[in-house]
């Protein structure tokens, strides 16, 4: 039956495990023409239950790789300017204020595009989310080669920065491809490898520039160098559209044509996300997680250069440590989130996030007290570069469970919160002349700890919160069905999320699940005895 | 063993002192510099332009890099056999304000305002001499003056014995970093993304109808 949710389709769920090809067999329809076949174990929503990073099999893992590569290329293009800044600032005669303004613009633009892209993903699918963003922002990336002053430079960086909204499509796509037990890990690996694009661009763009400089003056070479990330955006945008697949069962358009999916009601998805207070708590905390990461990426190299009198190259290499740690650190956050959830459920996920994010705040404060020693500073940076991305990974181990109907919008809002947090933090602590950068790190750390404390307000009725227990009698189906009106529930439109609700029951944690099972068995036994 | 240790310690101290050599050690300036400009093929030696607003000044000589304009630096000072003279450009205060990468440092080797790390000419003889410099294609559009530093022969790290600075400033007109061929390429390439997107949408729409 058709539904109006953006998530999942109605296919009878029965699978044969243990065989090499896992087939979702339709026991009732007697035909397997419409039944997708997968080479990985899948759950009732045909989501992969494993993450094989070495696999490129369709659809789950091919889409996974297209997903993170698209996000990485967006980061590569957005942060292509900083490693070439010594040349760009001379050509365009930029001041420090111009460069800072461009840095803020590059993250601010994505605030709005991330919110918008959540709705796009819910309605049209993550494939179009990636493809549209990459192909349209490639114009701005090419256009950077034509700028002649600071205004053009700032405008182009803002427009290219819109491509950072591919983060929302990235997280959404992982959430619909991978099972609840592994979605945290998948989200974290994809986002972490994507964020690594900022570190890679610092390493690669100087080589591209020096190669072109052999035949062109510097001031022309940096413009030509921008063609590389622009063409990368075009190729990945096309690749995602051609080879990608929105859902394990097919693309949105094909599923709608087959009558298995209705066009989503965008305003209902928006409402589902916006009216849920948990979305806004996560927006706030992510602003002091990913927002901190962006702020530090913009400030760490100039800080090392000024504080310890380094040359720009050395400061750049040491500063790149922060971005390159995303290779493993963000995934580590997702992995720990999934690991603690096995035993402690959602309460464990929340505590995990609180711990790593608070430790990130402590490291930020420590930067102030280590400002006279390069060795101590780099030691703090090493730990800092692990805790901050871990917090980002742990955040998206929680985000997929806030709302199912408004998953895209919620992901978009939370992602936008990261960029907004960076813009606010940059403006508050790193723009004025009355506060040194080291002092800015200290007060940013205080703010991180204070904002992270708001996590205690998150409470799921069936799972509980950091300091509260859940009510085991409330089912996940009841919670997620609340996003549908009574009329919609009567029509059965909420059935699309029932499979997801069932899969998310693992967030009760082992002990709670065991207690519930025991209670159910006891009740059955008592009933049988009474009979 | 003791002598070797003492010698090494002394060398270490000397290198430390040299690395920390400040401008005050070469003041007052022993060299005078005079700049003459060849602009559009015409050579002139204008009066030094010291007070200026880069956007409105009429006294600033403007050297155009695309036209191949050049600056002839004539210097005069005490001759010291063995030593050599290095020439470098210095950003004016106007061109270095709000630009930390051009900040002044009293330690000569760390000074970025005067580009000490990359002089445009080295090995010139001390005493009297001249050098004709043609600014290269990577010259930034700023206002500059010229600085001279006399390098002590065989010093490692580099030690300076004397200095001089031009009284007046000049302005560089840079190359056109947006040549026609580049703009044409940008214009063409900018259309690739939207056309690809439109083409794909059209293809999917037709495919869906079929």
TrEMBL record, chain A:
Alphabetical UniProt keywords: Membrane, Nitrate assimilation, Transmembrane, Transmembrane helix, Transport
Subcellular localization, as worded in the UniProt entry: Membrane
Annotated membrane topology: Multi-pass membrane protein
Database matches in CDD domains: MFS_NRT2_like
Organism for this UniProt entry: Chlorella variabilis
Protein name: Nitrate transporter
Record-stated family: Belongs to the major facilitator superfamily. Nitrate/nitrite porter (TC 2.A.1.8) family.
Any single Gene Ontology cellular-component annotation: membrane
Region (Disordered): 1-39
Protein's UniProt keywords contain Transmembrane: yes
GO molecular function terms listed in the Swiss-Prot or TrEMBL record: nitrate transmembrane transporter activity
Major subcellular location class: membrane
InterPro entries membership: MFS, MFS_trans_sf, NO3_transporter
Keyword Membrane on entry: yes
GO biological process terms, semicolon-separated: nitrate assimilation
TM ranges: 68-87, 99-116, 159-178, 190-212, 224-243, 312-329, 350-369, 375-399, 406-429, 441-460
From TrEMBL, chain B:
The keyword Signal belongs to this UniProt entry's keyword annotation: yes
Organism superkingdom: Eukaryota
Keywords, comma-separated and alphabetical: Membrane, Signal, Transmembrane, Transmembrane helix
Pfam families recorded: NAR2
Regions that span the bilayer: 181-203
Residues spanning the signal sequence: 1-19
GO aspect biological process, one term: response to nitrate
Name this protein carries in UniProt: High-affinity nitrate transporter
Organism, as annotated: Chlorella variabilis
